[in-house]
Amino acid sequence: MLEAIKNALKETFPDLEAELSIDERGILTIRGECAAWEEVVAAGHLAAKPPEIRNVVNELTVRGKIMPRKDYSLYRAMGIAEGRIDAVDVLVIGTGISGCAIARELSKYKLRILAVDKGDDVAVGATKANNGNIHPGHDVKPGTLKAKLNIRGNELYTQWARELGFDLQRCGLMGAVTDIKLRPLLEKAAEGARAMGVFNPQVLDGEQTKQIEPGFAEHGIEPAAAIWLPSMGLVEPYKAAEALAENAAMNGVRFLFNCTVADILTKDGRVTGALTSRGIIDAPYIINCAGVYADEISAMAGDKCYTIHPRKGTIAILDKNRKPIYHSLAGVLGGSPQKKGNSESKGGGMCRTPEWNILMGPSATEVPDKEDLSSTPEDLAYAMSLGEEYGIGNGDIIRFFTGSRPADYKEDFFIEMSPVTGGFINVGGIQSPGLAAAPAVAEMVEGILRQAAAKDGFSLERDPDFNPIREREKEFRHLSREEQDELIHRDPAYGRVICRCESITEGEILAALRSPVPPASVDAVKRRTRAGMGRCQGGFCQPRVVELLARKLGTDLTGVTLRGAGTNILAADTRPGAVKEAGEV
Predict the structure, then answer these.
(1) At what angle are helices 522-529 and 237-250 packed, to 10 degrees?
(2) pTM of the predicted model as reported, rounded to 2 decimal places
(3) Which of 33, 196, 335, 524 has the fewest CB atoms within 10 Å, i.e. is most exposed?
(4) Number of other residues whose CB lies within 10 A of the CB of residue 46
């Protein structure tokens, strides 16, 4: 098999002199030198194609270039200086949607759980930088772990939303055709989705299509038939992660931010803890949900079994004055193509948020640097190109941003208890549909930990005080006038509007600051409350948010950051005493 892979690489990349090795698990390591980064990625994908290959460790370099690598030496020195700071039963590394979901799932047991993140809040990586789609599961390669967990996760989201109080909109996914001769293709697609376990795929006639989705008629499109997947959903991904984290904290999970894991400590083939920038944390079980850095954390644990190649994507958010084209996530198949930004990733087109902002994108561009979140003109142009036929242009944009998908070379989730290092659980390669699959990912990891604990001689004990319910905070903008008046009567802070674009009140911001997992930066407050997400992007409300944060954090205005250490908004206080004494926030 190695010879066949080597020959395939040589045929595709004649100048590549690759060294290959494979271990008993089917982990292939590839070394050598390429002419460009695109070749590094393409060679990794080619090497991963044989089904016998479990995953690929890609150590190819680019001729004449220094590959970006994270330097952990300073973080190690900081941690050693602090010494031991904590001892827990389970350490979760990473607080994106997977980490928060797993922490919450495990909080039903009598366990000491700590979740750490190098960022200043939950959901600061890939979780906050995606389009919030809860995919039905029809568009994932059959037989993969992605497919299995996507379909199960989609099903579990209804319970999640009910228990955790975040907004889940089952908007449905519709692909229409204008030529009735194409209906057999829709029937075949629906049959395939049904075989995979997707919930209730249907093929509709033209009238049924227009009844469910009036946007077609509104734009002069006459559908002949459509495939309809009613389980498609939308969430604000950071709100889902926030809800999970808060409920986990209510049930005893602790969170530690601005905490970079610099090494995994082991003894006799088992993890004993982690060396972090904040100090040493003892833990017999470690769950690795570190996103684009998951491969590096796994290597620290002595299990070098996959490589993450970051695939960044740019999304543009449009002003609410530009109304969504469709109520569901809909489009005409065979009309304007849903462009692919990458052969291994579907990229994106046009969708909407639960708050009815149009999202354009994402793009899909392979980059060598995991810290590269730059938004290029090319990526933005790609994201916006699918709106041209609807008259959507750059003038409609209120914000654009770029995130990075943590893709491995099998393009599948990599979830397992390490067979090399006891107590170490990998949750890697969690890219789309990672958001949709998150409840099932947490369920799977719970099973892995329960099995490992039993093998180690003890069983996980359920906590009788576990409470799965997290009450939703009042959203002033969605209340009736009578409800708003009643709320203001009870708490006058709800009568002071801080963010005019989104009608976010001081009461809502103060409630967020009292969260079990409180926001500690302006961007964190924005994600929790939407203050700053409107047309002016914080031009009106940011000064007041800074004041409220300063009061909560017990600092002056210069101590408030945009998104964590090194992003202080103000350089000096030119108005001493500007932050009024107002008691406890």
Answers:
(1) 100
(2) 0.95
(3) 335
(4) 18
